[in-house]
Amino acid sequence: MKQLLWAERRKLRHSKIVWIAVFAVVMIAVIVFAEGQFVFKGSRYIDGAGWFMTAAQSLATFFVLPAVIALLGSYMICREEQEDTLKSLRLVPVDEAKLTVAKMIVAMVFSILIYLLLFVITFAVEAIMHFGTLSIQTVWGFLFTYFVNGIGVFFAISPIVALVARMKKGYWLALVFAEIYSFAGLFASMSEILKIAYPITAVFNLSGYYEATIGNKAISLVILLLCITLTIFILSGFNRNSKRIDVQ
Amino acid sequence: MSDYVIETKRLTKNYGEQTAVNAVNVHVEKGRIYGLLGRNGAGKTTIMKMILGLTPITSGEVDVFGQNIKGREKRVYPRIGAIIETPGFYPNLTGTENLEIFARLRGTAAPNAVKNALDIVGLPYRDKKLFSKYSLGMKQRLGIANAILHDPELLILDEPTNGLDPIGIAEVRDFIKDLSTEHGKTILISSHILSEIALLADDIGIIDHGVLLEENSMETLKRKNSKYILLQVSDIPKTSLVLERQFGVTDYSVQDDHSLRIYNTSLDMAAVNKALVVQDVAVISSQLCNDTLEDYFKKITGGEGIA
Ligand SMILES: Nc1ncnc2c1ncn2[C@@H]1O[C@H](COP(=O)(O)OP(=O)(O)OP(=O)(O)O)[C@@H](O)[C@H]1O
Ligand SMILES: [Mg+2]
Question: Can you give the pTM of this predicted structure?
Fold first, then answer.
């Protein structure tokens, strides 16, 4: 397993998708910063301590990062077949179930890292602008939010990754599906009930961006665990099938 | 116990209605180079895939190292190096990085295995060039490097010289030969180029439309197709007698009821003719023939020949 994880990380070297993700994060920060220049009740949004960090993770989660993470996840799985490397891996031999698990783990770590990168950028800006007013506690709170967002978003989009991997129609589909899926979260957030149950907004319940009771948090957690269960279910079917399908 | 590294028994593969491989019995002996020769679509790749367990077998059996491979992949694959069709690598990585991944996944112990393998196939170590920028020949070389990376006993190479230029082909041929003679590796190689196989293989299997038409050692084949005198006579038994008793010829073969081949081409045919006439044997014709392997393949593949 250690070797597989190492290999998965290695395979992402010089990879465009990783750079797309980093670029996306920087763009989010820039856009939210620009948004922050609007004046509301006599002061700019960005002048409120913590506003930038709050707005950035919310915008990122509704519009950008789930799609990027889903894209990377399904790219990692689909590429082995598209680039015909699965054949070479089978001859090593590599256990395909373990291979998929390794890929999912790397995708989750990537998800966390990409949120942490956003955290680092937004924190740096906040630290420069509001050094005095930002308490350690607030910062820790945000770090927690970003971290949980990273894990939670991965859980929420994982069924899409699995589904796209199984469809074998190209990993770009994951980007499209995840984009629609996360965008729909905006509408889900308008309903008190959907807000708890919809996977994307369920992440916010857990990460502390939304105020939520313990009960609601528990429901959200169950929803996300169901997501990952569904993923495992789809992927195990996929692995069983692909054993029977010829390597071209 | 047979000394076959690979043995197939009535190996068959159907793709839907089509029978791609039909009851093939291949015998690859230890330490030898076995050339699988056949035209495009003959079924070479399919046979290799079935041997390696990459595609399900419709019927028949495959033994590798004397046993069925199924369920023993973990122990058998490390002893095999293979390229099947075009080698699959990660396009966003360099050749060295690609090999490092496979070396690590295989748990290859030798620290400079990657460098050695690249040296052998003539690719630079730690080069900056990404696999996606490789030429066809370089890709093929990297595939071979990956196949020999873990120093396997058995190599299964599906058209390894595909896309190489003539000098490259000669290089690859030399080191494949070297792997066999110097390092005692067993090699199963496929090609649609007769001359390629003729220069390389110790044994040869000719496959056409999924059927193994002939399996023989190269020596036998070459002999079959070297120079000979084709003698057409009215009575074969009498002729044999004359040849053996009066001329001491043993190196001949009977083709059918009226013709035989004499491989000793320096025989005095005038004297033979005279002796036969004395024995009341009518000599219909006597000619010196020079069949090439090429002609032979044309004949056994039913006239279509081979590139
Ligand atoms: N996955 C597949 N599905 C259906 N038919 C296939 C498949 N793979 C191979 N075939 C058919 O099986 C036959 C043998 O193919 P194979 O690839 O083994 O030939 P080959 O001898 O390797 O040819 P080449 O010299 O072109 O590589 C062909 O008629 C081919 O169309
Ligand atoms: Mg082929």
Answer: 0.83
